[in-house]
């Protein structure tokens, strides 16, 4: 069943315009269908805030489970915001106190930009840990994306992420390591996942914390892992929510920053640009360099010309995993049963579902 537009959040209408089924609250209340309430803690920087809303809401809304999905978007203090973005959050987002009072069935926590060498030095660390601790005791399942995975591994297990020699950036082939796991039911055993990160939690780290690795890339890096109860905490290091052009926008940002003297020239995102896209990128770089030498303005980056050459090789698998995740949450909450954090696990029935 679809998303329910239970607030004036603009992303509901944007998703509807793109073909997503979104129920009005009036129509939803006339249907005798169970509700699932999903929190979305959006910590992304200003430029990606609304895009990230839509990416995760689209994955939730594309689930095939028989439920109406109410997505409650909130953020945290301690994140650097422009006045315009803060006004948007104040107008359209809920707050954590209301989330706590009304409750959630599941929670998604996005990544974030950081400025300090250790995550616990960030201004948002304490508010984030308050959400984490509340969710641990009150939410059936929390799904973490990228930076939030690293934050929870530090908070729960004292494990520090490891700085990579080079950024893991692009689209990478992955394999399922536990094909019988309920969260991986009926998905491809080999598929792609986008990544964009300078830091990693290793397989050894995950397993030393008692977690089950579900998906890893062909070079052995973990994309998806789950807590010992097999549902309470779900960890992603990659970005299955990404749009087809998300990495292109990151490349554009970094390339323009390079020509403005702010960073080194970025490489192509790995396994993402075919030869035609590389030729477009090289042509733009030459034109931009000539403009700098002539004291002229930089040319416009030809983003639309790249799009016909790009492929989305991860979206179907992402939707299948979210479908399985929300289906597991639906089953557990239908039994009016929360999973205790330290529950003993029956390997034959890892979710404890009757």
- The strand count comes to 11
Low-confidence stretches: 341-350
List the helices and strands in order: EHEHEHEHHEHEHEEHEEEHHHH
Q: Globular, elongated, flat, extended or rod-shaped: what is the shape?
A: globular
Number of helices: 12
Derived from helix and strand composition plus strand pairing, the structural class reads: alpha/beta
Q: How does the major sheet shape up?
A: 9 strands, mixed
Biggest sheet strand line-up: 4-3-5-6-11-10-9-7-8
DSSP helix fraction: 25-40%
Which band does the percent of strand residues land in?
15-25%
Q: What multimeric state do the chains show?
A: single chain
* Arithmetic mean pLDDT: 93
Radius of gyration computed on alpha carbons = 21 Å
Q: In whole angstroms, how far apart are the ends? A: 23 Å
Structure description:
This protein is 38% helix and 20% strand. The protein is an alpha/beta fold. Strands 4-3-5-6-11-10-9-7-8 form a nine-stranded mixed sheet, sandwiched between helices. A two-stranded parallel ribbon has the order 1-2. Strand 5, helix 6 (125-138) and strand 6 (141-145) form a beta-alpha-beta unit. It starts with a strand and ends in a 20-residue tail after the last helix. The model is unreliable at 341-350 (pLDDT under 50).
């Amino acid at each position: 069943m679809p998303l329910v537009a239970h607030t004036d959040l603009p992303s509901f209408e944007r998703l509807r315009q793109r073909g997503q089924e979104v129920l009005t609250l009036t129509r939803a209340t006339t249907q005798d269908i169970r509700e699932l309430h999903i929190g979305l803690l959006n910590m992304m920087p200003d430029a990606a805030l609304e895009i990230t809303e839509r990416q995760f809401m689209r994955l939730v809304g594309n689930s095939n489970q028989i439920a109406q999905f109410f997505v409650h978007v909130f953020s945290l203090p301690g994140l650097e915001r422009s006045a315009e973005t803060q006004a948007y959050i104040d107008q359209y987002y809920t707050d954590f106190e209301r989330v706590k009072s009304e409750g959630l069935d599941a929670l998604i926590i996005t990544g974030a930009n950081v400025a300090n060498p250790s995550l616990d030095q960030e201004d948002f660390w304490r508010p984030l840990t308050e959400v984490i601790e509340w969710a641990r005791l009150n939410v059936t399942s929390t799904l973490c994306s990228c930076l939030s995975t690293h934050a929870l591994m530090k908070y729960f297990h004292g494990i520090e992420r490891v700085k990579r020699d080079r950024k893991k950036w692009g689209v990478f082939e992955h394999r399922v390591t536990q094909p019988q796991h309920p969260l991986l039911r009926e998905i491809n055993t080999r598929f792609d996942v986008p990544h964009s990160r300078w830091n990693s939690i290793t397989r050894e780290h995950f397993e030393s914390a008692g977690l089950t690795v579900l998906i890893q890339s062909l070079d052995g890096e973990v994309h998806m892992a789950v807590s010992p109860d097999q549902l309470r905490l779900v960890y992603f290091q990659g970005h299955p929510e990404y749009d087809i052009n998300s990495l292109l926008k990151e490349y554009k940002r970094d390339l323009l920053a390079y020509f403005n003297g702010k960073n080194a020239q970025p490489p192509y995102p790995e396994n993402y640009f075919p030869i035609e896209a590389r030729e477009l990128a090289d042509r733009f770089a030459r034109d931009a360099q000539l403009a700098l030498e002539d004291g002229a303005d930089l040319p416009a980056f030809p983003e639309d010309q790249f799009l016909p050459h790009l492929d989305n090789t991860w979206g179907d698998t992402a939707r299948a995993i979210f479908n399985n995740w929300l289906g597991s949450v639906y089953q557990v909450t239908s039994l009016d049963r929360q999973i205790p954090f330290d529950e003993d696990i029956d390997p034959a029935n890892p979710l404890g579902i009757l």
